[in-house]
């Protein structure tokens, strides 16, 4: 039987290493590549303009690639459970294919679409390709539980073996007997949305440093893989949080949207490593991909993973509700230039280095402001191009010392930490230009500058730039005691989940890759 297929693009916005798309083309006479744009889904309501722009770029790139195969992308607006029954009937669909997604919302959505497909006599095929491994298999190998340490994850994946090799993108030859029927009104009915139609203001955008799409992802991958010595020597903690251009690959947004396959990245790294001395996990680039796998596994295997309450591995902390502090942090008005520069870069560009994420996450939670990591998670979800649900939730728990990492007495200084890699404060001057005339001596602590220096710099603290909202030296010590009290209330067995010594210092936002 020759099938009429819909391939449903969600993440996995690429042709390379897309086994579900290849499955759609088997015994297929007609194919309809579909992306369902549901602006009101829980996954989309909290998305900022940079992320929408990236998605639109990725969809345009995907449509361009499909055109080269004599096909097109059909963008359909609405809820999947409402649009698919109509499409099944309209196109007389017999098969639906998609990439497996482990997020709770996605699993619920896919279960409902699966039920509707069955009602319409539509066969469903889904394939694992967003992660290196089948996450369910990792949990199964660990007696049905998510591994709570990186070392344990490494042991499990070692027993499974290396990730599957990526498969090539479909060619025109693969499509020679397959048609995509398009009407003259395709753009009108199924065209890619604009920012204006998504109620976003393009005027608020700054320069787009990271354009969305598979072609851009593969170009960046090629560019980095050509730097063989850099790849082999890469150690994540040695990279700089406040360099003026990224000190890491910035491939994470492309992996979040599936413009780049994790397996393709893994095996390209393997090729570069071949026969050479190279860094090892957790700090190597292979190690970063395994961190991603670690948090995906936790996100699937731990109930209520994006919340404190009802999350069985999360320390229950009596966080404060202080909307003024939260707004000051999110809007870069804390009065600490290093923190404010990072949050400004995040809002403008949609990306910050993983150690910069450490600094602002610690500052918001256990370090200074004592605000719940769930609030920080929401802001990152909105602003980060790589705001991946599992990684975002996992890393906020880690940095707030709520889960995985328990050395709560190690606090990032909002002053000293940035000075390590940028004594002159060039990063601060780039993102907070009103402070650019401050001498290096005061750039991290402008409130300590004499009035004459502030006047000469043209920026008076308390008038042109805010005073610090807290006194770090005092509040951080108080918060350590509050954290100690929260830990004292935990059940005795929870301390067993603390990472071993080998993982000390491995706390990281994998997204900053």
Automatic annotation (TrEMBL):
One of its GO terms (molecular function) is DNA binding. FAD binds at residues 248-252, 288-295, 386-388. Keywords: Chromophore, FAD, Flavoprotein, Nucleotide-binding. InterPro entries: Crypto/Photolyase_FAD-like_sf, Crypto/Photolyase_N_sf, Cryptochr/Photolyase_FAD-bd, Cryptochrome/DNA_photolyase_1, DNA_photolyase_N, Rossmann-like_a/b/a_fold. The record marks 319, 373, 396 as: Electron transfer via tryptophanyl radical. GO terms for biological process: circadian regulation of gene expression; entrainment of circadian clock by photoperiod. Residues 493-507 have a biased composition (Basic and acidic residues). Belongs to the DNA photolyase class-1 family. This is Cryptochrome circadian regulator 5.
